[in-house]
Amino acid sequence: MDADGAREALRSGRVELALCYDFGLGDDIRCDPVVAVPPHGVLPAGHPLAGRRQVRLRDLAREQFILLDLPRSREYFLGLHAAVGVEPLIRHRSQGYETVRALVARGLGYSILNARPRHDRSYGGHQVVVRPIADDLPALPFVVASPASYRATARARAVTAAVHAVAPRLLGPA
Questions:
Q1: What is the DSSP pairing of strand 40-44 with strand 29-37?
Q2: 5 Cβ neighbours under 8 A, 6+ residues apart
Q3: How does DSSP classify residue 14?
Q4: Residue 81's pLDDT band (boundaries 50, 70, 90)?
Q5: Residue 61 to residues 20, 36, 116: CA-CA distances in angstroms?
Q6: Average of pLDDT values for 29-41?
Q7: Cα separation of 10 and 5, whole Å?
Q8: Which domains does the chain have, with CATH numbers?
């Protein structure tokens, strides 16, 4: 679910924990920071900038952009472009993370994402190239979220400890 869905699930008591990005979940939600996940550029394998060690958003400004179009993500990714003074040329929008990667892998544009699978292949088998963004841009805090009034169960404490042990290796820079 997206950030708004996670917040509502926590508030309603349907879930006791949510593993998510902190998109300003609200004062009634406690966020236990795990790792800050920086944005990175996602390019098709044959892209001219794929050979660089890093990319700048200004260098991508004339390229077609594929937007991960979820409510809080949308504002974050568009805000990254605005922070460096460019407006992306949005070609496609998708609410599916893997759909965005698949469209990039097919050469239909570039994207910016935070989470990064340990493999650089789309589900369709085509390669994407992931490059750090050289611009000074904010990372997204990945958190274990719970209602502020919630008293953690032993199970929730165990899950939180496991997330702290594993998530930095999975979500941190590759």
A1: unpaired
A2: none
A3: S
A4: very high
A5: 29, 25, 22
A6: 94
A7: 9
A8: 3-35+139-171 (3.40.190.10), 39-132 (3.40.190.10)
